[in-house]
Amino acid sequence: MTEPQYHELVEFLAGKFDRVSEEFRRFDARLDAVEQRLSAADVSLESLRDDVRQVAEGVMATNERLDRFEASVNARFDRLELRFDGLERGLHRVENRVDETFANLSQRVRIVEERQ
């Protein structure tokens, strides 16, 4: 290889290495940008996890409150049902007394009518 050919080869290779170096610089820049975006995504994901955790805790607390409310309402309905059962028994007693009273009055009216 002659010296001019050697210099030509060196210049050619230098140009190629310069282009490869430039490609590596652009690749590094793109990789840096991707790493920054990934880091930002990690921060957003962690924030989202915290938000989801808070919502889940809120839902659990609401479920507990609803369970307590349901138990309270059920207890009140049970007490009301007992009261209505008592009122129903009392109403049946009153109906029976009214029926007896009307039966007695009807019998007395028949007796009075028969005497006339």
What report would you give on this structure?
By secondary structure, the chain is an all-alpha fold. The chain has one helix spanning 3-115. The protein is rod-shaped, with a radius of gyration of 48 Å.
Short summary of the structure?
The protein is mostly helical.
SSE layout:
Elements: H1 3-115
**Low confidence ranges:** none
Report the strand count: 0
Helical percentage: over 70%
Strand content: under 5%
**N-to-C terminal Cα separation, in Å?**
160 Å
- From the spread of the alpha carbons, the general shape counts as rod-shaped
Which sheet architecture does the biggest sheet show?
none
Q: Work out the radius of gyration.
A: 48 Å
**SS summary, helix count:** 1
**What number is the mean pLDDT?**
94
- The computed structural class is mainly alpha
Output the helix-strand order: H
Give descriptors for this structure.
116 residues, mainly alpha, rod-shaped
